[in-house]
Amino acid sequence: MTKVDVSICVLTYRPDYEKLFMTLTSIIRQQGCSYEIIIADDGTLDFRQDLIEAWMAARGITDYYIVRNMENRGTVRNIRNAYAVAHGRYVKPISPGDCLYSDTALAGMLRFMEQEGYRIAFGRSCYYSRNGAQVCIHDVMNPYQLRPYLEWNAAAIKEAYLVCHDYANGASFMGEHELVTAYTNHICERIVYTEDAAYTLMVADDIPLGFWNQNFIWYEFGTGISTGGASLWWERMQEDNHATFALIAERRSDLSDLCRWYLEEQSREDSPYTQMRCAYYEEVARMIQTETFLQDVDEWELKKLLEAGNAVGNGG
Q1: What is the pLDDT of residues 219-249, one digit of tens each?
Q2: Residue 65: which residues within 8 A CB-CB, separation 6 or more?
């Protein structure tokens, strides 16, 4: 099959179909680049493949695939299934409820990565939440500190990631297909849920991480693994984080001291890594009080997608 620019991988597990169709609407509206859609489901017992196929057929969409685990295996295996059937030069993971920011967001990120030579990059994420008909846009950003990326400071980016764990929002990433697949395969046997641990390993391996300083996605705040707040998911993420740093320690002897600190010595106040992280988050606390994280957010772009999802939910 002819390759496309981007394989957009929609990861589902017991999906809210209104949110899924809202996400798909944001995808099929993309202009300026070629793409395919891959929907990867992680063992939903009553998965409505027929409903998705009907939605696609009603809109004349044929360039899509549905891949399914017959049982729940975790996010990493689910995304690996999607990458295995992808034909894009780049892959873009996304989940129901999260959407591409505008009709040209995907092409904008693609051009940025091509022109700047980045193999992995993330864009700005615009956080929102819903309470019935009420929609709230939150002045939040991950990572908190964008300065290292704006200054192209590779050492500061590595410190922010590996010492301070100020990670970019996983939903805001796009990456070169072969590279992301290789790292996902590497973490698959050790990490279950945090698929963006692949990017942490890339940063540890000194693969440049780009930042497209434009709004790239709408991110539904407070519902996913990382922002939902459930203690069980927090514990699972901590397990995955420990597995990530154990992998880094095995791969990079030059980072063994850092990994040992993370895995065994974080409570040591005299550690330079602890002091470094404390200073970093003191700066973050100041920023939260004094700075605005969002830029040029057009709420109408979100409302268009919400209305499309509501129409589907009401039989449209």
Answers
A1: 998 765 554 456 777 888 899 999 999 999 9
A2: 36, 37, 38, 39, 85
